[in-house]
Amino acid sequence: MAEVINMPRLSDTMEEGTVATWFKKVGDTINEGDILAEIETDKATMEFEAFYAGELLHIGIAEGETAPVDTLLAIIGEKGEDISAHLGGGGEPTPTQQEEPKVEQTEENQVSDTQALLPDNVEIITMPRLSDTMEEGTVANWLKNVGDTVNEGDILAEIETDKATMEFESFYSGTLLYIGIAEGESAPVDSVLAIIGDKDTNVEQAIAASKSQAQPAAKTEVKETTITAPKVEVAPPATQPVAPAPTVVAHSNTSNGRILASPLAKKLAQDKGISLDFIKGTGEGGRIVKRDIEQYQPSASGRIQMPQGIESVEEVANSQMRKTIAKRLAGSKFTAPHYYLGVEFDMENAIAFRQQYNSLPDTKISFNDIVVKATAIALKQHPQVNSRWMDDKIIKHNHVHMGVAVAVEDGLVVPVVRFADELPLPQIGAQVKDFATRARAKKLTPAEMDGSTFTISNLGMFGIQEFTSIINQPNSAILSVGAIEQKPVVKNGEIVVGNTMKLTLACDHRSVDGATGAQFLQTVRNLIENPVTMLV
Questions:
Q1: Lowest-confidence range among 211-215, 231-235, 287-291, 515-519?
Q2: 395 - beta bridge partners?
Q3: What is the pLDDT of the chain when averaged over all its residues?
Q4: Does the annotation count 513 as an active-site position?
Q5: DSSP 8-state code for residue 277
Q6: Which fold, 3-102?
Q7: Does an H or E element contain 36, and which?
Q8: Are 132 and 162 in contact (CB under 8 A)?
Q9: pTM: predicted TM-score of the whole model, two decimal places
Q10: Exposed, middle or buried, 487 (CB in 10 Å: 0-12/13-18/19+)?
Q11: Is 369 a catalytic residue?
């Protein structure tokens, strides 16, 4: 009896899935436990195994196509079995089900037919989804050129996502036949990134076939996109004079506003204080290389001194990180009804506590570590603040995964200190310091920035006394921490010099009421103003 297999729900938030790779084809024998395909969900690409044995009679979703959960994925049964009823038809059984039933040629099934044109031993590499929020990626650097031999595990390129720049390795061996996205160019997830195959492959045929494989399936309309060879555009210099001035010639070492230069050339230029804007690259495609920096002569560089009073502007292309920050924060601000609670803490005991703690050998903690620890303990006592709003329910987290906002060149990332309430102060400090270092080098992994239940943003080290933050969804609240300020305070009816710190809690009113937020801050106050209680 034929078994119908539908698109599985592989994560709690999955609504649709994309078939990344089929490991079996129609007519193959399937054993229980065999890996049928790789399914790309909203969170990861996962292997999907068969729970039935038999012959693969039908594939309902082709590679590269996307379909909602519970859509017909495949049918497994006995060889020659009639599956027309499962396909929505009646009719006589076909002699063999190794070939799919004939279907009227429509726009909807043109994708599968085109894929048959793909030459043997050719693999289409698409723009990968390297983070849970990634919608498009930018090729920062190609490490292979067309014609190079590629081995499984070789690094093909560096891909800039909305969160980090990550190395992308090849899962196939062969010759790099085609590059679909040039350095500096951006493209949506699943766009054709490259083609790998045998050296004597008909490249034009492979490119034509790749159009459909990288295109998600659409129920109502299928739009074809012409794939052409990568185009490198010449951009103007970063700084453009507005008033009449001598002409500045743009060199061909730019693409989409990005300067094409080798990593070594960039480092040498930075060390020598040389701007790349006025250097003509002599490398392939106008790329600036090491010798261009070493041979640079200011008098021959084409640099033009701007007259006094000339207006100028600089256009900086938005990075994937900046685009995602804008989208997510705007979504949070305009969907979650924010309200704010401000408090001012007495930091005298915390200052003395930190001095005593740091007097221990090989021990060093910061005030931020104290705030993180105190907040984590308070969240265990007030799970309503440690929650997530959903349309039909509120999820209260019994664990505390503390997101710690870190400023980087392109914006802001939020690595997560997991089970922060259970960690000793030095370990919290070590994790936060490590995260901050790797965040600025774009070396954090997506997993290290996923799963926060609450977020802390600290601008005190920049001298900011108080501020408000936008909630880092799906969290229900975020705590803004200001600087410790020495000021006159009243103690026991007398004005004395004291040290205070202002904190502001932003809450989502849908899940955290005002009284609940106020009680949470009272608990945080008791812990920070009496920090020894955190060690009990």
A1: 231-235
A2: 388
A3: 82
A4: yes
A5: G
A6: OB fold (Dihydrolipoamide Acetyltransferase, E2P) (2.40.50)
A7: strand 35-40
A8: no
A9: 0.52
A10: exposed
A11: no
